Amino acid sequence: MIWNRLRTAWAHQRWRIALSLAVTETISYGILYYAFSVFLKPMEAELGWTRAELTGAFSLSFLVMAAMAYPVGLWVDRHGPRALMTIGSIGASALVIAWSRATHLIELYVIWAGIGVCAAAILYEPAFAVIAQWFRRDRGAALTLVTLAAGFASTIFIPLADALLGAFGWRAAVFGLGVFLGCATVPLHALVLRRRPDTFEAADQPPDIPDSLDVAFGRALRDRTFWVLTVSFGLSSLSAAAIRLHFIPYLIDTGIAPGPAALATGAIGVAQVLGRLLFVPLDRRLTSRQIAVVVLLLQTVAHALLLTGASAIALGGFVLLFGAAQGAGTLVRPAMLAERYGSRHYGRISSVMAMILTVTATVSPWAASLLYDQLRSYTVVLWLILGLAVVATGVLGLTRAERIRPSVVSTAD
User: For residue 50, what is the domain's CATH number?
Assistant: First the structure.
């Protein structure tokens, strides 16, 4: 049944693109994002650099991603994703291989700055822009497909990276992941992706929604609701990014062995898939804003559980709630932006928010590392991320969205 549906979907260009992105996003996130936490401690032990110095390189990649967000969004809006994402995959593969050979701190920083450029071209932001271009009626289903698959990135690649680490050491493990990244993603980006379509396919076009219903880029940036969403999602990103990168080191510090710690972190990916599966029925019953508030509440409760201790119940509850919140949250943001502003300028509109969210995701792990290096404990970090989650929920929950007047709807660049 599932195989027949996938084969049917592959017969349509837009679904071939969505299926290919589902594969490439899973692999790219697994290697460029999740695997780093597995190699943090062995790099620290071999190279003698502090945790803050190592996570500084990882954080630098996010700063570069933020700087590249608008040029990437503009390119996808005007030229489509094919050349951009293909070149990005080639560069990312080469740089991960270079990471496996790094011996000086400056080398590591240069490599991860380059990875940031490539990641901006191949991770969620350009992929979501592609989905917005090729889908209207089925946009939610396509977003769910891409992110549902990518939700397994941590589940697959954290244990895989840990197994490779144990068998071959961190350098050989990183080298192998870099080769796999190139072999798996470059052909799909080069052979399947296309320029943006001139019009939506007839089967995907609801009769009551014209293709021209798109808010101009400048008008979107003057919309108060856009900035409310940006502040709320930004605070949530500050909170989530800190614990996501440090979860394995935190578990190890509480006495949990590296293997089980990697499995527990990978289980967050399974919970992300659950959150994305729940998004579809919730989307039929609640507004996107209501779903977003629920997502932020789940994240807040998850952080609170970590402060109760490292018991099996607390950690299991955190993995379930945090993963579900992250999974549904990944869908909520692009869905809200596409619904409110349309697809014509989605890449640029989304890129502005992405730049801010990427900076927050950059600062957060690095700041958490500095606190840990000073205090040798994650207690203060856990309290801070809980506070950020509470404020993020309050900002979105207590602010009412305003309607965009029809007079500001435009197709102009």
Answer: 1.20.1250.20
